[in-house]
């Protein structure tokens, strides 16, 4: 399966973003393309009212509709991050478009404190069948919480795609850990560029990459520059390595710390 990663700068002008994104996807031949978090209108807004005034419902989002047309024509799939309006709420969502149809939506579950000023929290973890493969989706800060990835593995995900908007190296380093502990390739698309609002300035790292199930890097990233990356991935989630022949069996074990234990005191030793 050929993966295309669009490590690009995103601006507040959705029409300008559409031109750039459409050109890259139309001129390349990946099976699944992935774009950054909030690829339609950018990230750094002054307040919720400003974002709410321009965010749209999914069926009215002109970037999504353009990608439907492109994927219908070339029989490809796209994962794209958008600001999704639903009634009086806004979600930081990752959308799956497959061969002209919107087949799924993942709403970011773990929001940073800054993002809580704009977005509602997603409530449902999901996997999606895309190009014959079950995939999990996450958005940036979600990766800090291993439960998200583990639940997606339990739901049958064989690849995990993550759209990002981060600038620091700590988040980047966590992706490798998630790949290793789940024996599952992680595909990361993180944006580049700079955004400002009245109070803040943010520079985005880039460093988009693919980590294989054993943590080896399949694409070597480029920091802070626009770049289209492509890789034909041949291996998916594994269930064994040299240390264990059945990780699924091990994951099903109940741990003492996961059980409800009333009136249990923590023992303290004096040294």
TrEMBL record:
Segment forming the signal sequence: none
The keyword Hydrolase appears for this protein: yes
GO MF annotation list: hydrolase activity
The CN hydrolase domain, residue ranges: 1-235
Keywords assigned: Hydrolase
SUPFAM superfamilies recorded: Carbon-nitrogen hydrolase
Record PANTHER family: DEAMINATED GLUTATHIONE AMIDASE (PTHR23088:SF27), NITRILASE-RELATED (PTHR23088)
Protein's recorded name: Carbon-nitrogen hydrolase family protein
Organism, scientific name: Fusobacterium mortiferum
Taxonomic lineage: Bacteria, Fusobacteriati, Fusobacteriota, Fusobacteriia, Fusobacteriales
